[in-house]
Give the backbone structure.
Amino acid sequence: MDTFHSLSRKASFISLLLSLHLLCAIHSAAFNVETVTFNKGFSHLFGEGNTIRSADDKTVQLHLNQYTGSGFKSSDLYNYGFFSAKIKLPAEYTAGIVVAFYMTNGDVFQKTHDELDFEFLGNIRGKRWRFQTNMYGNGSTSRGREERYYLWFDPSKEFHRYSILWTTNIILFYIDDVPIREIVRNDAMGADFPSKPMGLYATIWDASDWATSGGKYKVNYKYAPFVAQFTDLALHGCPADPLQEVVNSDCAAREDGQLASDDYASITPKQRNAMKRFRGKYMYYSYCYDTIRYPVPPSECVVDLAIRQRFKDTGRLKFDEKHHRHFKKRGEVMNTRNNRNQENV
Ligand SMILES: *[C@@H]1O[C@H](CO)[C@@H](O)[C@H](O)[C@H]1NC(C)=O
């Protein structure tokens, strides 16, 4: 037993050393992604006056000021596909701000909606942005499947590509070409796996009441406007009419072929290693390790023993490492608009 533990400690130390190196090596390579102009693929959602498009219509700035946030959405809904944008987040003091990049069909299916999210949570000066991913299927909002992470870079310095691959069997969240989360469909999930047409959305908004340390730090409009930039948007999927359940079959065949050949459609062993390392090092919450909420992890969870060691039985991070201490002191609350039951963590 002891030998096993010291071996595994050694192994995790070595993998820690390797992880930074690997993440850097890997994320320098970029996907080859066909992009679309705003006018071709998108329309305004809210705060139109706070949406500023570049002359070539490939870049959109979403502003948040004391009057309103802003947002846009894809003009069509899609049944499966690859959805992506390069995003640069606001710098400086960003407490209380949320930038979201997500897919949903909530306005069509109010009670049975599907959703896949990236949500970036602003922070006080000097503290890192954090982000979370989530999935809902067929209105399963009581089963939050959220994970929360730190980034391995400063997202306000440069553009990075954030992508969602959504097929009939797999969901992959990517940052640049590092897959950070994979959900493989299984029968036990039933309709919890999103399967109705969804649109792609991007928003910036004031979430002062929960985004940073459970609402302790509000948006400070002295630093307004807060600007999130989106560029090189990709919408690879077949437009679908949500009420007809018919997908243009020519398009579907073409997209299937395209998805099969694109470099984001399958993960190389190297990428799988990078995913494992990202999750081992930067993930600080996952519902799959939260035994208070889920005494038995939901069926899609693939429990990684090395990751489980980092969490207490409660699924909360162990704070026994020196560099984690200040997070504990801050009493961080990782709350989301969909997950208020986490409020008193
Ligand atoms: C989705 O949810 C609705 C309402 O709860 C239910 O009637 C329906 O059967 C579900 N769909 C599937 C495919 O399970």
